[in-house]
Specification:
Elements (H helix, E strand, L loop, with lengths): L2 E5 L6 H14 L4 E3 L19 E3 L6 H5 L16 E5 L16 H9 L6 E6 L8 H7 L2 E7 L6 H5 L7 E8 L7 E8 L23 E3 L2 H4 L6 H11 L2 E2 L2 E2 L1
Parallel strand pairs: 1-5, 1-6, 2-3, 2-4, 4-5
Antiparallel strand pairs: 3-9, 6-7, 7-8, 10-11
Length: 248
């Protein structure tokens, strides 16, 4: 069971990087659970998909919420390549030293420690790894992903010419939480196509509207059954712009 801590400054694309991983799991037919508001019709590339399995858990889940999740996959034997994807945003509010000993926190931590046996890969999103309690870092920060945005880099000559780098998001994956930990992977994403796939302005407040575990309907039941594939194709043609003889 890989465990990842995704970090980065405000607007660095932490949630976007996590949602891009979610999309990979969905396209592979694997289960997803998250406290992020998702819009599956923009994740599946198919408005008529009926079988994507997505679970919405509360913003700050309890042990009961996590225990209500099914196994990450239903095979008759363990297989890490079929594990589900559990993504938790704003973990800094409940993984810091002050909240470490909150009521019910021990049961949640115990669930995370046993997540491998429950067949889930975990992605924790937190603004700074330093905010995370040292015990949590030691227990869960197997991989740390440092998010960067290329369009915020100022390249000397290009900057003076008013040319900005493309809006490209990069996640540098290191094995371990130490600054000298070796880099084991690099995730690259061009983010625009995923902006509609999740609520970019979601606020994680104590008064959570989600109580307990809920399922997210596949795109077919919210969009696909209300439009034929031919109508969808025609609408796409109508909305395509013709510029200088080329389609964009």
């Amino acid at each position: 069971m890989p465990a990842y801590v995704i970090t980065g400054k405000l607007g660095a694309g932490k949630s976007l990087v996590a949602v891009s991983r979610i999309q990979q799991y969905i396209l592979q037919g694997r289960k997803v659970a998250t406290n992020v508001n998702l819009y599956p019709e923009h994740l599946t590339n198919n408005l008529w998909a009926k079988n994507c399995e997505i679970y919405r858990i509360p913003n700050k889940p309890t042990a009961a919420d996590l225990n209500a999740l099914p196994l990450g996959h239903d095979l008759d034997r363990p297989d890490d390549n079929r594990n589900g994807c559990l993504v938790l945003d704003e973990c800094g509010t409940w993984f810091n030293s002050r909240s470490w000993n909150d009521k019910g926190r021990a049961e949640v931590i115990e669930w995370f420690r046993n997540a491998r046996k429950k067949r889930w890969d975990i992605f924790f999103i937190i603004q700074d790894i330093a905010v995370m309690d040292s015990q949590a870092r030691d227990s869960f920060a197997e991989h740390v992903v440092y998010c960067r945005r290329f369009d915020r880099f100022k390249i000397p000559l290009l900057h003076h010419l008013g040319i900005k780098p493309p809006k490209l998001h990069m996640g540098i994956v290191k094995y371990g939480s130490d600054s000298a930990s070796p880099m084991v992977d690099r995730w690259m994403y061009r983010g625009e196509y995923l902006y509609d796939a999740y609520d970019t302005e979601q606020q994680f407040s104590a008064n959570d509207e989600i109580q307990g575990l809920a399922t997210v309907l596949p795109p077919y039941y919210t969009h696909g059954r209300y439009i034929s594939k031919w109508e969808f194709f025609k609408n796409g043609i109508k909305s395509t712009k013709l510029v200088n003889g080329s389609f964009f």
